[in-house]
């Protein structure tokens, strides 16, 4: 698996973001076996990952999707918005075309599933570092099917509602008016063609739109 010919100048510097400690340790150990890959930081939540990106300016961010603070997709969007040179590779259990489509829109260049063979991760990082893409082939075929009808704010409000927050709680958290929050929820419910916010949350999550 290791590459004996790697030189220090060719080392791929990686920040790893994964909220499950066992998975984070396993991925870090796996990548540590590679002579040409260095994990410069391994963190458990999104805001810590963002700070690590600013501190280390790595070549690649390897991140899960669902994490405390910022999600992996929100991290990718922030990397894109700030025009960082860091490339983003998502490693997740979520085999949902909706997630992949949003990831590609956010500039993600790698999307792998955690049940993929271990050796694929290092090869994917090399491919991405060289300017290519590493996308799960089956998901890639599905990614441009059903379009995501939600906008970013509707998605954010619906996600918080699904976590059990009231309209007032969401308004305070996002610095919005309660009426505005209710409008976003109503729009999301209408777009998804369901009866209430809980059904909307479940459907959007199933489709990979949250």
From TrEMBL:
Entry's Gene Ontology BP terms: phosphorelay signal transduction system; regulation of DNA-templated transcription
UniProt keyword Transmembrane helix, yes or no: no
Domain HTH luxR-type: 143-208
Residues recorded with modification 4-aspartylphosphate: 64
Entry GO MF terms: DNA binding
Annotated ranges, domain Response regulatory: 13-129
Keywords per UniProt: DNA-binding, Phosphoprotein
Name of the protein described by the UniProt record: Response regulator transcription factor
Upper taxonomic lineage: Bacteria, Pseudomonadati, Pseudomonadota, Gammaproteobacteria, Lysobacterales
